[in-house]
Design goal:
With 379 residues, the protein is of the alpha+beta class. The chain is built from 11 helices and 21 strands. The protein folds into 2 domains: 5-45 and 147-211 and 338-375, FAD/NAD(P)-binding domain (3-Layer(bba) Sandwich); 86-138 and 213-333, D-Amino Acid Oxidase, subunit A, domain 2 (D-Amino Acid Oxidase, Chain A, domain 2, 2-Layer Sandwich).
Length: 379
């Protein structure tokens, strides 16, 4: 009996996660990527696997499933990863109150706890001690260097599962069972469109009907910290708590949001909340902002980067603040809080899209669940 075959369009994190889930179940998988390597949103991020941002329940469980898959792949493929956890840092009583409520509500289902001043400073030498009230510790967060890890995951899938990759091959038309690029044509039993906003060119009517928008984010990288100095966990200021739905279970969050709306109106206008993670070389990734719309200018706004760096200084004391890179990324975002877009575009063709800024955190888990349900085969 011959293997079932599948074509995956897109070699970003969603495409790789889909390819993995299929290949583990015995599919003969071919991946098409329009560029010579993945260069989109999948490499333009913190590299954070971020379960703390997901609400308790199915999305948190999906994030933890993703984390376990990331861990498995990184271990087998020799990909650098750091199970470093995270700290949300409080300098005001209302921030500490939200963290207290979060810890109390989630202590039985998550690895999290409220830390006092001394415990916080012991976790991270980079936390600014002046005015510190405490912090929320979570042990579930993991860091990879996305711009390296994404390509290494592709190499891993090729080596372990004989997944075939066609780079520099833009698919311009899908007619199940075929995909077409110029004069070339390939066929498979199943086709998966995992190419981010590019599915707009393959199925423009479906893209328009879905109500998808696009989010532009600005990010920066700071020079490696001297003498191997490490910040410890990934660090977050209080603004991150009103960005991630994981904190919506805290009764005091609306009051904190109102205070932020008064004090940080310009930050909220541009979707700024600030986090910092550290890679294997000691460099720091800092961000980010969120601008929504179907078309974005290609230029970074200096005042947004300055807002991010100014807010970073309210909760960190770093050894080296020298800026070495700035960039932006754009990803599709679903409206009304929807967390993904899954649609059978035609018989045999499935679109997997719209994970917003949660691709690194949710893709492996989501695609594992989708393919397991369709095949009734557990990996």
């Amino acid at each position: 009996m011959s293997k079932r075959s599948a074509i995956v369009i897109g070699a970003g994190i969603v495409g790789l996660a889909t390819a993995r889930a299929l290949a583990k179940r015995g599919y003969r998988v071919t991946v098409f990527e329009r560029n010579e390597r993945a260069v989109g949103a999948s490499i333009r991020n913190f590299g954070m696997v971020w379960p703390i941002g997901q609400p308790t329940g199915p999305l948190f469980e999906r994030a933890m499933l993703s984390r376990s898959i990331w861990k498995e792949i990184c271990t087998e493929a020799g990909i650098w990863h750091d199970e470093v956890g995270s700290l949300h840092i409080a300098y005001h009583d209302d921030e500490l109150q939200v963290m207290t409520e979060y810890a109390e509500a989630n202590r039985s289902v998550r690895d999290c706890s409220l830390l006092g001043i001394e415990e916080t400073l012991q976790k991270s030498p980079a936390v600014k001690p002046s005015g510190l009230k405490g912090a929320l510790w979570s042990g579930t967060e993991m860091i990879v260097e996305a711009r390296v890890a994404i390509q290494k995951v592709a190499d891993y899938l090729s080596d372990k599962y004989d997944v075939t990759f066609y780079w520099n091959t833009a698919i311009s038309q899908v007619q199940h069972p075929a995909v077409i690029s110029g004069q070339q044509r390939w066929e498979a039993d199943e086709i998966y469109i995992c190419s981010g906003a590019e599915f707009e060119t393959l199925y423009p009517e479906l893209f328009s009907a879905a109500g998808i928008t696009k989010c532009k984010l600005q990010m920066m990288r700071l020079q490696a910290q001297p003498d191997g100095w490490r910040i410890g966990p990934s660090l977050c200021g209080g603004l991150s708590m009103i960005h991630y739905p994981g904190f919506q279970s805290a009764p005091s969050l609306p009051a904190l949001r109102r205070r932020y709306e008064e004090q940080y109106a310009e930050y909220l206008k541009w979707g700024v909340h600030v986090m910092v993670s550290q890679n294997h070389t000691g460099e720091l990734t800092v961000g980010d902002s969120h601008e929504y719309g179907l078309v974005h200018d290609p230029f970074d706004k200096d005042f947004i980067n300055r807002m991010i760096l100014d807010y970073l200084q309210t909760f960190t004391t770093l050894k080296n603040n020298r800026l070495i890179q700035t960039w932006n990324g754009i990803y599709p975002k679903m409206p009304d809080g929807q967390t993904e877009f899954i649609l059978e575009a035609e018989a045999g063709v499935t679109i997997i899209n719209g994970l917003g800024g949660n691709g690194m955190t949710l893709s492996f888990g989501l695609c594992e669940q989708i393919i397991a349900a369709r095949t009734n085969i557990l990996s």
